[in-house]
Amino acid sequence: MEPENDSPEAGEAKPDDPKAVEPSAVAPEVAESKPADSDAADPKVVPAKVVQAEPFQASLVQEPVPPKPVRSKPVPPTMNQRRFAQVSRRELLKVAPVLALGAFAIPRFQESLLKKGLGFSDWASARLFRRGHLAPTFADAQLTPFEKFPINGYDVDDPGVIFENWTLTVSGAVQKPGDYKLEQIQALPRVRQNTRHICVEGWDVIGRFGGARLSDFLHMIGADTSARFLTVACADDYYESLDMATALHPQTLLCYEMYDQPLTRKHGAPLRLNIPTKIGYKQAKYLTDMKVTNVLEKVGYWEDQGYSEFYGL
Predict the structure, then answer these.
(1) CB atoms near residue 61 (< 10 Å)
(2) C-alpha to C-alpha distances, 228 to 11, 108, 224, 242, 293, nearest whole angstrom
(3) What is the pairing mode between strands 239-243 and 229-234?
(4) Cβ-count burial of 287 within 10 angstroms (0-12 exposed, 13-18 middle, 19+ buried)?
(5) Which tens digit of pLDDT belongs to each residue from 278-299?
(6) Which span out of 47-61, 83-97, 179-193 was modeled with the highest average pLDDT?
(7) Same domain, 27 and 104
(8) 134 and 245 both lie in a single domain
């Protein structure tokens, strides 16, 4: 059994009872269902549309709670944006060489860029150099005829060395400094090899060279082979340097022969370098002085004018 409803909304109140029309007691649906001759015109009667809401309705009109902030998620680029980015990178790669060449066209950048490029090339070449890796050798039938072997001079073809008075003066980090005669160098084991001579000017020939291994001579004079460099000076005022790894390479010769004959004056007599792992200008002629050192005051005649210091082949 449901409880009896004693509230004024039961419709029992009489129209002439003033208490029956109190605003707080009239439900909206009752007020709307009154007949036309009711006391709705009475100023004390409040229209239903302004009647206070029921308690459960009041909870719906409380002050709104601010919504929680929503974190924006990154929006992936559209297809057009991705395509534009790809095209932009591709176009940048295309123009990069042009920009680099453009930088070389600016005089104040040229020297710096060239030095950095040569420095990187020498650094990479030195790391790739292997002391036990030999340069190619060739059969006698492949030799360039002696008379066709080019003569390249620094200043003069013959600086006028007096062979009888010639010595190689040794200094630096060695146990036995001093002057060494050609006969002392020739007393070391002789090596003959058919190797290619490559000139920086663009030509190359295959020649036959003979002499003592530079490594044998360094051992004879008690050189400190942990030093970094070996430098040479020449009768024609040419000068050059070698890294120690190249100096110790088994194909690096103190050359006093070509084609099984004594070295001629025009080819660097009485003693020159033959280094088939290096470019031609490293192979100095008319040697007069040699020094083992860790510090280079001068690198080489051509290197000090901007050419590569290492120039391995």
Answers:
(1) 8
(2) 118, 33, 9, 9, 6
(3) antiparallel
(4) buried
(5) 999 999 999 999 999 999 999 9
(6) 179-193
(7) no
(8) yes
Q: Which of 206, 188, 190 minimizes the C-alpha distance to 198?
A: 206
Q: Are residues 39 and 167 in the same domain?
A: no
Is residue 215 classed as helix, strand or coil in its secondary structure? Answer: helix
Long-range contacts of 59-64 (CB under 8 A, 24+ apart): none
Residues 158, 109, single domain; the answer is no
DSSP string, 62-93: SPPPPPPPPPPPPPPPPHHHHHHHHHHHHHHH
> What's this model's pTM, rounded to 2 decimal places?
0.65
Query: Residue 262 sits in which domain range?
Result: 129-305
Q: What is the pLDDT of residues 91-147, one digit of tens each?
A: 655 555 655 555 555 666 566 656 667 677 777 777 777 778 899 999 999 999 999
- Rounded CA-CA distance 275/311 in Å is 11
Q: Compute the distance between CA of residue 252 and CA of residue 132 in angstroms, rounded to an integer.
A: 12
Report the first-to-last Cα separation within the chain, whole angstroms: 113
Asked, for residue 75, whether it belongs to a domain, the answer is no
Tell me, what amino acid is at 149?
F
In whole angstroms, give the CA distance from residue 25 to residue 264: 135
Q: Judge whether 235 and 167 are in contact, CB under 8 Å.
A: no
Pair of tokens at residue 64:
């709104």
Decide if pLDDT at 44 tops 60. no
What percent of the chain is helix, strand and coil (3-state, nearest 5)? 35, 20, 45
Residue where a domain terminates, one of 70, 105, 127: 127
Q: Which residue has the higher pLDDT, 86 or 237?
A: 237
Place of tokens 């000017």: 201
Residue 228, SS3?
coil
Q: Which two tokens stand for residue 45?
A: 């009667």
Shared domain for 288 and 180, answered yes or no, is yes
Same domain, 241 and 275: yes
